[in-house]
């Protein structure tokens, strides 16, 4: 009986995963873009839903097995978004701290990873508030969020394709064995190209600060990806979940946004008198 061709099997599996990943992307991206364009209640609802699912995944990733605890933890982000919607970002930030302290000092009977649960509240809810704040600027908020999404998405795409095609030296093999330096550089280039195209369409010009911010956010986004890889390795998990076919969990898709969104908002606040979008 002939032995199965392991190499061929792996290639077929890789191709299948790629096409599933591609189809999922073509379905989800238009939905996200339409809701982002609409803004307001629908945008806040989408962001809240995403963070709620991500919180559920984070709780499970940290070793929690109680469904009741996981569900309660997943409601933290949506509750904070409701608080933001009615009472503003100051009260929302206050409640992020309150929830973080609650999870830090409440011992769970199944495990003692309270620091991870406490950190998760800030790690997930703070970027959520930042993204909502960016979009709520009626005059240019849509451009801000589109810029952020394009940079992060193109970073992921560039890193994936260039890393697959070129390969080479590993970026941080102890944290993420598949990531390469060529992929990291490809992510930078793709993000810059995506940002330039967006600027050309929206403003018919490409300010230098715009390009610098795109590169900086791309780097921050890749650090976010590496951080989540480190957390998964810390808890011996391959993916954060299976909710998105071909991609894994929600956390696997938004890890770059979680680190880059606060930096984007901080940059906007610091450079509010400089038009770069």
Verbal overview:
- With 277 residues, the protein is an all-alpha fold.
- The protein has ten helices and two strands; from the N terminus they run H-H-H-H-H-H-H-E-E-H-H-H.
- It has a two-stranded antiparallel sheet.
- Helix 2 packs antiparallel against helix 3 and helix 4 runs parallel beside helix 6.
- The model has no long low-confidence stretch (mean pLDDT 86).
Q: How much β-strand is present in the residues?
A: under 5%
List the domain count as a whole number: 2
The tally of beta strands, per DSSP, is 2
Rg over alpha carbons = 20 Å
Any idea what the shape is?
globular
Residue runs with pLDDT of under 50 for 5 or more positions: none
Mean pLDDT value = 86
Helical residue percent band? over 70%
Structural class comes to mainly alpha
Write the layout of secondary structure elements.
Elements: H1 6-38, H2 40-61, H3 67-74, H4 76-87, H5 89-105, H6 114-135, H7 141-166, E1 170-172, E2 176-180, H8 181-202, H9 208-234, H10 250-270
Antiparallel strand pairs: 1-2
Helix pairs in contact: 1-2, 2-3, 2-4, 2-6, 4-5, 4-6, 5-6, 6-7, 6-10, 7-8, 7-9, 7-10, 8-9, 9-10
Features:
single chain; mainly alpha; two-stranded antiparallel sheet
Short description:
This protein is mostly helical and 277 residues long. The protein has helices at 6-38, 40-61, 67-74, 76-87, 89-105, 114-135, 141-166, 181-202, 208-234, 250-270; strands spanning 170-172, 176-180. The chain has a two-stranded antiparallel ribbon with strand order 1-2.
